[in-house]
Design brief:
22% strand; elongated; 629 residues; 6-stranded antiparallel sheet; single chain; 29 strands; 17 helices; 8-stranded parallel barrel; 23% helix
Amino acid sequence: MKKAILIPTAIMAMTACASNFDPSSVADATPQQLAHVEPLSWWVGMKTPLQLLVNGPDISSFEVSIEGDSRVDITGVHKAESPDYLFIDVDVCRTAEPGTYYLVFSREGESFKYPYEIAARRDASAERAGFTTADFIYLIMPDRFVDGDESLDAVPRNMESVDKEAFFGRHGGDIAGIRSQLPYLEDLGVTAIWNTPLLEDNEPRESYHGYACTDYYHIDRRFGTNEDYRALVEDAHAHGIKMIMDIVTNHCGDRHWWMEELPFADWVHQWPEYTHSNCCFSAQNDPYCADIDKANMEGGWFDRSMVDMNLDNPYLLRYFQQWAVWWIEYADLDGLRVDTYPYNEKYPMSQWCKSVREEYPNINIVGEVWTCNVPQLAYWQGGNPNRDGFDSNLPAIMDFPLHSAICQGIPRDTVYWDEGMVKIYDAVANDLYYHDMSNMMIFPGNHDTGRIADIINRSVPRQKIVMTLISTLRGIPQILYADELMAVSKDLSQGHGGLRIDFPLDWKDDPVAVEVHDYCRTLFNWRKGATAVHNGQTIHFLRRDNTYAYFRYNDEQVVFVYINNSRRNEIVPWSDYAEFTCESAARRGASSPALVSGTDVITGETVDFSSPVKVGPRSALVVEFPAAK
C-alpha cells in the first residue's frame, strides 16, 4: 500500500479558523465542485477522532480551512493517490459550540465553502444500553415486510423498480411499513428489531436484500429517508422496542460511487480476474495456513457485485469506524449486527469493534460467524482465551451450532443414539467452549436459512416446540419475521427468493397462523419478566426417547422446560430430577424442602408434580415456580 501524502506544514498553517469569517463572502460549493463530504455531520464531545472524506474533481489541489468557533480546528490534511480525494483531520474540542461551521476550499482564482454541522449530543448518549438476554429480537427484511408508502415504489430509472411477483426483485416494503406494524410487534412481545440493511443498494438487479451498499450514509430512497429512519427508531423506542442496524464492512456494491475513482488502489482488493473468497474461516485461525489461502479468504470477493474492502488501509478503517458511530449517534441506535464477520481482515476489525465500544461502552455488537465448528465459532467472541492471543473485541456471536441442532433434531421421529432432541442437548453441552453465553444470539432461522416451518414439515406442534426452545434456552433469542405465524416459503425451489416472503397482513384469516401466533404471544410476553431465563443457570437431563428437560434458575425464579418431541404420550420423570428439585430450596435459600407445584406459563393452570404429569406427543411444557421465601 502506498503511503498517503501529508500536506506540508506551510499549507497546514493556513488552516487556522478566522473568527470574523463572513459566509456570504464565499460562494457555496456546487455538486460539480464537491460531490461528497463524509461523515455528513458530527457532534461535540465524541471520543472517536473525526476524519472527513472529501471527494470532488481535483480537490487535492485546494487549500482547506474551517471557519467558525476556534475550538474546532483542522489538524491534518492527507492526500490520496487519486487527486479527487482529501482526508481531513478535524479536532472538535469538548468545549466547542454546537453549530454550523464552514469548510473553505481555496486555490488561485477560485474558492468555495461547504457548511458542516457539529451538533450537541443527546443526554447520556455514551451510556446507552445495548440488547441483552432480556430482549427478544425480531428480524425483518424491509423490502419483503410491509409496503407502507406506495409512492416510494416509483423510482428513478437508475434504480431497480418494484415487481411484487419477482422472486429476486423489489417488492416495495419500506420504513413506513415497519412503523405501521410497531403496535403489532409490541403486542407480540418483541423488544428489539434487527432490519437487514436499509442503506442504498443501487444494483441493477437483486438489490432488494441491501447487502451490496452503494452509499453508506443514505437510506435507500425506496425505503424512505434518513429522517424517516430516525423517526422509526424514535417510534420504536416509544413502543419499548430497541433498534439494531445491520452493517457490512467486508464488501460494498460494485455500483458504489467511489468505484468510479478509488481514493487508493488498495481501498478494495483487486485481482487480475474475478476471484471469489474461498470462504474458509479456518484460514483465520489455522496455525498451518498458507499465505495464499489466507489472502484469498480475506481478499476474495463475496460475489461479483460485492467488491471486497481492504480494512488494512487505515483511511478505510477510520471511515468505517466513524460510519458506525455516526449512525448510532444520528439515529439513536441500540446495537449493530455485522454481516460476514470472519471475511474481514481480523485485526483491523478487532480495532473497529474496540473503537465503537470505546464510544459506547454498553452497546452490543453481534457478528455473523456462519460455522457449526464450535471452537472456531468461539474463537471470534471477544475475550475468548485464544492460543494465538487474538481478541476480536466482538461482544456477541450467532449460535449456528444450536441452529443446526434444532433443524436436524426437531424434524426427527426415528431416534438413534445421536438424533432427535439429543442434538439440542449436545449443542448446549458445548457451552464450555464459549467465553460468554449471555452474548450468544440463538435463532431457528434467518433471512439466509430455510424457514423453520418448512424444515419441520409444517408441523404446528413442532413449531411450538421450536419457539419454546428459543424462548427459554440460554442466549439472546431472535426469530425471522412471520415465524410467529408459521409462515412457509412461497416456492422452495427459488431458494432465498422464495423464503423471503411478504409479511402476511391477512394472517388473522388463517386458523393455523392464529394458533401459533397466540402461543408465541403468550410465551414472548411471559419471557419479558422471566429473569431465570435472562440470566439464570442451566441444568439439563439426557434421555434417548426424543424428550429433553432442563431447569433455568436464579435466586428469584425457577423455570422448568420439558420437551416431548416423540409421537407418544410421556410422563415427566420428575424423580430423575431430584438432584435439582430436592436441593433447589437450599440453593435458593427457600424454606420448602423441594419443588413440587408451579404454573404452566401458557395456560396459567397449576402443575403439581407430586402426581404423574403427562405431556402429549410433540408438545412442550413450561412451568414457572414461585420465588423462594
